Amino acid sequence: MPKPPLESLRFFEAAARRLSVKLAAEELHVTPGAVSQQLRKLEDCLGQPLFERHARGLTLNTAGRDYLAACQRALAEIDRATAHLIAARRVILLSCTPSFGAQWLIPRLQDFLRAHPRIDVHVSTGNRVVDLATENIHFAVRHGLGDYPGLSVSKLLDDELVPVCAPTLPARLDALSGERLLHDEHRGDWRLWSRAAGLNTLDCEQGVVCVDSNAAIEAALAGRGYALARRSLLQIELAAGRLRQLPAPPLPSALAYYLIHRPDTVRDPEMGIFKQWLLEQAAATQNKSPPSGGLET
Fold this sequence. Notes:
Blueprint: H1 6-18, H2 21-28, H3 32-46, E1 51-54, E2 57-60, H4 62-87, E3 90-96, H5 98-115, E4 119-125, E5 139-144, E6 152-158, E7 161-165, E8 181-183, H6 188-197, E9 208-209, H7 213-221, E10 226-230, H8 235-240, E11 244-245, E12 256-261, H9 269-285
Parallel strand pairs: 3-4, 3-5, 8-9, 8-10
Antiparallel strand pairs: 1-2, 5-12, 6-12, 7-10, 7-11
Helix pairs in contact: 1-2, 1-3, 1-4, 2-3
């Protein structure tokens, strides 16, 4: 027995309810010709007409009236089932800084969403420290020393700073000059790096100060100067050749990116899946084996 296409049934339901090809087309945002084509396809599939066609519109015949009632029940059931599935999607809320979100998390997140279509991840970016308990945030990524009492803590990424530039600029130390430096809000980073690299003549008081490290990286990508940025956030740009690292040692930092959450959060299976994915992605970034449970404090 042939099965009519679902699209034809929806076109039929709209035309039968409105008794007008034109009004059905307006409702469905298609042309009247498209509606007529779907109606003919359905009638051909069923082997009998469903309408009596007149100059002023349509009239359902007996078969059409019976079929409309059955289609409306079936379509309503499909709509209810769809709404139930959508409502059943698990939403995970994560807070992080704009630079971590834009440079590291978002480029990788689409892979997770494709692998887990029933999980939605809502990312809130900002530099404000959120309260996981009172604001109902499931996870947060913090940049600090890892001391977060009462919370579960897993180190994600170390925080070496490396000098980078776009391919349009020479990736050489002798090309560095004060006016070409791109600073983030921590203006002292270039001073610390130049001292560690032995470039004591570099005037680190010059250059453009950006609102945050993400803005500094964007300026570097546009060829506006040299940025000092966290290597862990630049992996994709460096691998793609959109940025080049200057031949100089990185500036180590005691700071790192940490994933934190309330201890009971990962009792939810979907939350546990998302946490493990984050740890695996971070381990791949730094070529390490992912921790089984993270650093618990």
